[in-house]
Amino acid sequence: MSSSTMQLLTTGAGVGALLPLLTAIVQRPRWSAQQKQAVAMVAALIAGVATVATVGGWQQFQSGQLTATFLAVLAAAQTSYDLLWKPTALAPLIEGVTTRKDAKQAE
Question: Does residue 106 fall inside a structural domain?
């Protein structure tokens, strides 16, 4: 494995570890599990593209690095959510804080 591939995977894993906190800003507690999974997948894809473009440069898209980086981001995001952000209730707290309450909920 080349050093550029390792750098992309390492950076992707780091980005993925923090990604649940960012996705918690847009996710809502009332959403179904499927909706939350879709948001997480799209966020991981966007983060993977951004990581490859930032770390590896646009030429890396032609060597197939995006798939590996996307998978690294996705795996790290899911693992960090399950092991860190969910048990500490930080991601759910962010979801609750960033959810706009309507007049009925505010009472």
Answer: no
pTM attached to this predicted model: 0.80
Answer for the pair 75, 13: CB distance below 8 angstroms, yes or no.
yes
3-state class of 102 per DSSP? Answer: coil
Domain presence at residue 103: no
Q: Between the CA of residue 25 and those of 29, 49, 62, what are the distances in Å? A: 11, 20, 32
Residues 6+ away with beta carbon under 8 Å from 96: 29
Does 105 reside within a domain?
Answer: no
Q: By residue range, what is the domain housing residue 17?
A: 3-98
List the structure tokens of 52.
Answer: 């490859």
CA dihedral 45, 50, 18, 32 (to 10 degrees): -30
Over the chain (107 residues), the average pLDDT of each successive run of 10 is 81 94 90 93 92 79 78 93 91 86 53
